[in-house]
Amino acid sequence: MKRKVIQIDGEKCIGCGLCTNACMQGAIKLVDGKAKLVSESYCDGLGMCLPQCPVDAIQLVEKETEEFDQTRFNIKLKSTSQGSTSCGCPSVQTKVIEKDFAGQATAESQPSYLKQWPIQLHLVSPSAPYFQNANLLLSADCVMAAYGDFQEKLLKNRAVAIACPKLDNTQGYVEKLAQILSLNNIKTIVVARMEVPCCGGIINLLKQALRLAGKDIPVREVVIGIDGQVRL
Fold first, then answer.
1. What is the mean pLDDT of residues 144-173?
2. 111-224 has the same fold as 2-68
3. pLDDT digit string, tens, across residues 166-208
4. What class does CATH assign to 111-224?
5. What is the pLDDT of residues 8-51, one digit of tens each?
6. Which CATH number fits domain 2-68: 1.10.10.10, 2.40.128.110, 3.30.70.20, 1.25.40.390?
7. What is the rounded distance in angstroms from the CA atom of residue 31 to the CA atom of residue 206?
8. Tens digit of pLDDT for each residue in 59-113?
9. pTM of the prediction?
């Protein structure tokens, strides 16, 4: 079949290894101090390794080659999700928060609709029970502070993962999202972001994850202005 795969220029390669860390499929290995593509069937053609190369030794080319081995990728997702991310710290321990919201609201306070812990995309476990059969909210973290109706209009009845596409080290975020989408029956996704250009990266992360996971899930994008008003 004809599709895109990476091509590595061995003359340019300096053997830094950054591409091997960026490749989520394990398709690139260092051999004799140079990056090598292990198998074209391992390469998903997304090119996540390209921006990591400091000498532009990697490019995407379209050619007749083997089909991407999705089965191998699914096995990798399962094995990765079963690994423990907990170090004993309460910040990373998966927890479902059971709540009865009926009658909790008063004139002075409103209930929190958060039903899980943790919420940071970096910390959540893809196999956490709160993701199963869930409606997912993927939110830029600034939205929670800027949008007054965040709890009622966005968080209510949704599992949540928050991230900052500008300040976070987003390496691995696409794979983490792909794991969540692959291992759970996610029904719908709402992406909430700020109107500033750098925040648009969060929707790009999701698009790549959907493609990587081979999923077609309804997505709604909500854009919040810095004045707290809904732009989209």
1. 91
2. no
3. 888 777 888 899 999 999 999 999 999 999 888 888 998 999 9
4. alpha beta
5. 999 999 888 888 877 877 889 988 889 999 999 989 888 878 88
6. 3.30.70.20
7. 32
8. 999 999 988 886 655 555 555 555 444 445 555 566 676 766 565 555 567 789 9
9. 0.61
Q: How far is CA 181 from CA 141, 174, 207, in A?
A: 20, 11, 11
Cα–Cα distance measured from residue 189 to residue 205, given in angstroms and rounded to the nearest whole number: 13
Distance CA 46, CA 110 (A): 44
Domain boundaries, the chain: 2-68, 111-224
Residue with token string 């379209």: 62
* Helix/strand/coil (H/E/C) assignment for every residue in the chain: CEEEEEEECCCCCCCCCHHHHHCCCCCEEEECCEEEECCHHHCCCCCCCHHHCCCCCEEEEEEECCCCCHHHHHHHHHHHHCCCCCCCCHHHCCEECCCCCCCCCCCCCCCCCCCEECCECCCCCCCCHHHCCCEEEEEECHHHHHCCCHHHHHHCCCEEEEECCCCCCCCCHHHHHHHHHHHCCCCEEEEEEECCHHHHHHHHHHHHHHHHHCCCCCEEEEEECCCCCECC
- 124 vs 172, higher pLDDT: 124
CA–CA dist 144, 216 (Å, integer): 27
Residue 86: per-residue pLDDT: 45
Q: Is the dihedral of CA 209, 212, 215, 216 positive or negative?
A: positive
Question: What is the rounded CA–CA span in Å between residue 201 and residue 191?
Answer: 11
